Every structure is written in structure tokens, then in C-alpha cells.
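Table S2 (text version). Query chain:
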Amino acid sequence: MLTLTKPYNEYVKKYVDTAFGDVSPDVKSVRTLNPYRDDDAPLQVREIEVEVEDQGQKKTEKATMIYPYYGDRYATLNCEAAGMKDIPVYSGQNNDILEWGAGWYNGSSYIGRPGNVVIAGHNHTYFYYLPNCQVGDIVTLETDYCKITYTVRERVVFHETDYTYVFPTEDDRLTLYTCWNNGYLGMSEYRLAIICDPIKTEWKEVEVDQ
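Corresponding C-alpha cell output:
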């Protein structure tokens, strides 16, 4: 059980920066495309309804979401088959944050909510081993309120001006991406995306101590 003691702000700040280039869709566009953004959540912690599977049957239950502030440590990422172990994931994708770990794109879905969860990292630091991810590999993403297990669906190389893999999607997925430059370190105009499908979500009990 997790007990939260962090003080709350009146409203959660909205950020839409991305790594390796300025995508920056405006907030209105993001919320229109992705109705699960929950940007109007008045507190950092909020009770939501989630769909869970119980003995082969789907049902709706209550769960607790913890919305990260910009710069918060948000999750831990693992892909054992690729050699990616306990990679810290922070909220935001500016240069400072990407020195600390991988960065969750604030214009994408919150972890545990429907849609496209987008996380980026530098190919010379925390996402150095991302190219090792192969179709069928298991990826886990764990926050203080849930743990999601994914399987890698596909690998895609795309140009930095192609925002297809960053913007919201109709299906639920995790998109991990980094610079792609055929093995050389540094920046590139191309990106490698590892697209993953969720196969299991485990919600945690969260006790809020206000």
C-alpha cells in the first residue's frame, strides 16, 4: 500500500513539449483527440473507473490515478530481453529531464488510461538498448498506482517530422522512441519507435493522506 503525503496544487499544470523536435500540439487539440487526458482534474489524485478482467469476464471497478507534476518521477520501465533494466521515467521531455531518465510526453495518455502512452529517451543514455527490443518481447511499465505489462508489436523507423506515432491513437498502446542513426551516437532526423500492446494491467491500492 502506498501512502501519499505530497501537498497538492490547486490545478495540474499542462505541458506539451516533446523530445528531439517541437511537436507541441495545442492543448485544445490534444484534449479533443484524446478524451482521457483528464487535464481538468482538480487534484493530483483522482478516483476513476477502469475496466478489469475477472475470470475471463470484463467488469468496471474503481481505481486511483496519481497525475504527475512536470518533472516528477512517474514510472519505471523494464524490458529484460533488450537489456533495459529499471529505467526511470519522468513527466516531461525537456533536455534536463532526459538527463535524468526517459521522459513521458505530456500530450499523450496518462499511464493506465486508454490511448497512446508515449515515452522517449536519448539513444546514448537511457534508451541505448532500445534497438534491441524485438517483436514479442515483454515490456513492463510500473507507477505508484499500477503496473502494466506489454508485448512488443512492431518496430518502426520514421522521420522527425512524422508525428503519427506521437499523437493519440484509437487503440491502447505504449510507444517508446529514440533517435535512429544506424548505430552512431548523437542526434538524427530519424526516430526508432517500439510499439507495444498492453496484455495485463494490475492496479494498486493507494491510500491518500491529505
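Notes on Table S2: The chain is about 5% helix and 40% strand. The two ends are 16 Å apart (CA to CA).
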